[in-house]
């Protein structure tokens, strides 16, 4: 129990049901968080499998809560989704990621890209394409360096509308990545209709690579297929040197995971060395 002043005593239980008081409270606090700038973006590098060179970063949202501390997305994104606030959170993420990208580019790392996760609800927003384009133009960063990550499940929710919006964005040069590939139910045929430039192999596959022969063979087939479709193939959740070696051998050209770096705030990031051309 805790004395919360105005309302007397209340009990916080971590197992409260989704519609419980703590969730309603979290929702109200999330509004405040947006207004008071409590959200943060952490970044995790994406490395070229061959050279090890950092080619970009994935932005992952956090909430620096004044009382509860640093909250990971699973603690507040479900509430954001349920309340529709994910639209505002998503817009903040897009703008913040573009602002950070502009900083890296201004420092001379003009080849870096930033990857941003989009939720299914954002695709129900008719203005989504405009929101993305606004974030890019406001921060004066090239659309080619923006990668939007969407999961198979998101894409399958309203495939026509999703493809319509992604096609507009692609025409502007923005890249699309299919996230968590292998966990959903989409057909390979469907994948072909997506205007994607990148496929992210889900961590579940990466984890099994040494244990499960069938999974590994399936993965090899997926990679072969994605290559034929001219997609970049990212393996996520790479934690060991062994996984790094095997995934590279299997043909993944981009690797991401704790083996290289955990997601960290921008001030703790290791940036690629800037190639300074001799005068
Ligand atoms: P995701 O997009 O699949 O992101 C990868 C998650 O795996 C991240 O968790 C990351 O910290 C974690 N990860 C990275 N490398 C490793 C590894 O080697 N081992 C293990 N065990 N985990 C690794 P995080 O940051 O907690 O994010 C969880 C999910 O929340 C994301 O999964 C994404 O679906 C969602 N999310 C995060 N940021 C945003 C956002 O800005 N917008 C939306 N809509 N969703 C977001
Ligand atoms: Ca992602
Ligand atoms: Ca993922
Ligand atoms: Ca995931």
From TrEMBL:
Domain EAL, first and last residues per copy: 23-277
Keyword set includes Membrane: yes
Keywords: Membrane, Transmembrane, Transmembrane helix
Keyword Translocase: no
Source superkingdom: Bacteria
Protein name per its UniProtKB record: Bifunctional diguanylate cyclase/phosphodiesterase
Organism from which the protein derives: Tatumella terrea
Residues of the full protein shown: 408 to 686 of 704
């Amino acid at each position: 129990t805790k004395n919360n002043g105005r309302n007397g005593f209340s009990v916080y239980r971590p197992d409260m049901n989704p519609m419980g008081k703590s969730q309603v409270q979290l929702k109200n606090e999330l509004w405040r968080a947006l207004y008071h700038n409590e959200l943060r973006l952490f970044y995790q590098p994406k490395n070229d499998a061959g050279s090890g060179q950092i080619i970009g970063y994935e932005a992952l949202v956090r909430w620096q809560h004044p009382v509860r501390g640093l909250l990971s997305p699973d603690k507040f994104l479900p509430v954001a989704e349920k309340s529709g606030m994910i639209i505002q959170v998503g817009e903040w993420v897009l703008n913040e990621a573009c602002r950070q990208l502009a900083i890296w580019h201004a420092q001379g790392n003009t080849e870096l890209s930033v990857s941003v996760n989009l939720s299914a609800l954002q695709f129900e927003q008719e203005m989504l394409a405009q929101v993305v384009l606004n974030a890019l133009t406001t921060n004066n960063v090239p659309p080619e360096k923006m990668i939007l990550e969407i999961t198979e499940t998101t894409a399958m929710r309203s495939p026509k509308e999703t493809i319509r919006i992604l096609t507009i964005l692609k025409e502007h040069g923005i890249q699309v990545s299919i996230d968590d590939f292998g966990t959903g139910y989409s057909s390979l045929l469907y994948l072909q209709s997506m205007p994607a430039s990148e496929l992210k192999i889900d961590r579940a596959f990466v984890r099994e690579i040494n244990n499960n022969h069938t999974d590994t063979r399936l993965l090899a087939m997926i990679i072969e297929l994605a290559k034929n479709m001219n997609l970049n193939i990212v393996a996520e959740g790479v934690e060991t040197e062994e996984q790094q070696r095997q995934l590279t051998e299997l043909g993944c050209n981009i690797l991401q995971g704790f083996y290289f770096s955990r997601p960290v705030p921008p001030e703790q990031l290791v940036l690629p060395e800037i190639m300074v051309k001799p005068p």
